[in-house]
């Protein structure tokens, strides 16, 4: 069964998210690998989201996993339970599809999250932690996010946390074409930041990498120049804007570094620092330095624009239908084992009777056709029951009538953690697929 453990900007405060996203991914992967009853898992950790998607062989595995997770991330178990949301098997697809489509982001419709979801699957593959169900889940999420992007205007404005931050920077009256910018970080988010800066007309960008990858980044993006380790303070003093988005778990810009750069001869009159790092890249005390304005993720949350309700509901409709199709396919696959055993049993009986009654190939072929004909309707009915979520009934009937036993699902999660918010039937009102989704949402 699939389970998602989620802490995000809706359920957890900034300080807790900072601790969770700062946890070692290697340690989390080892935890997944070493917990009995867990076949695989994918870790999705971004600046506003900490999530682990698990494939469990039984529900009891989760009861052991959660306390171990609290120890691994260094958070009290009670605090963790109070601020996470757990999505059970039925709700995981719709939730991940919504996440990948930008519907659960601070900036609704952001572009970056789809790439982050894809990379999390790639990382899980490298760690050999994926399973067939997880592969299909994340691949379907990628397909769904593309569908949302192509069929709605959700991402039409290119909204993202980066864009939101730069839009807020307008209050600083920055002349983009003349602005001197320092970019800290060289990952995917740095690339998105550079693109957003160039769109606004920025021409002077220096990139600094705490891990020493500035030159490699500059080779990919010819418009930037690398900042050497010993020249960061010098470049900071002349910067109008500093954007940090590094994955480091330490402050890149501490109080002393920024203060000394501000009092250096020739420093700019004012400076805006945008900290998009999680954990923080900038010491919060930097915001108290004269002439410096510090804008961080916690502040950005308060300025996130309201949803465009019409566009968002259409996107959620697309997501809901994709989730239903995914679950229908999974249910049919679950029934495949029962169908295979049923067909094998009938075929074996046909072959036994054929061998006993005659050696005539014509008669044997007729018996096989009769067997296939008898299998046809029950097979279709089992598939239909599976799509309706009634596979257990079909399996029970096969066991009762034919003695064919098929292992049932893993079971249900305990309710000791805060459940994820349920799907809202009203979200599907006016949706062109509402009739096909009625059974998904339920009363």
Plain-language structure description:
Residues 168-301 form the Quinate/shikimate 5-dehydrogenase/glutamyl-tRNA reductase domain. One of its GO terms (molecular function) is glutamyl-tRNA reductase activity. It catalyses: (S)-4-amino-5-oxopentanoate + tRNA(Glu) + NADP(+) = L-glutamyl-tRNA(Glu) + NADPH + H(+). With 443 residues, this protein is α/β, with parallel strands linked by helices. The protein folds into 2 domains: 2-157 and 416-420 and 431-438, Beta Polymerase, domain 2 (2-Layer Sandwich); 161-303, Rossmann fold (3-Layer(aba) Sandwich), CATH 3.40.50.720. Helices cover 51% and strands 12% of the residues. The chain is built from 17 helices and 10 strands. The protein has helices at 14-21, 25-34, 60-73, 77-83, 92-100, 112-126, 132-151, 161-168, 188-199, 214-220, 232-237, 255-262, 297-303, 309-357, 361-387, 391-402, 434-441, and strands at residues 2-8, 38-46, 49-56, 85-87, 180-184, 204-208, 224-226, 241-244, 271-275, 292-296. The protein has a 6-stranded parallel beta sheet with strand order 7-6-5-8-9-10. The chain has a 4-stranded antiparallel beta sheet with strand order 2-3-1-4. Helix 12 links the parallel strand 8 and strand 9 (271-275). The longest helix is centred in the last third of the chain and has 49 residues, at 309-357. The chain is elongated. The two termini are 23 Å apart. Mean pLDDT is 84; it is low at 421-429 and 433-443.
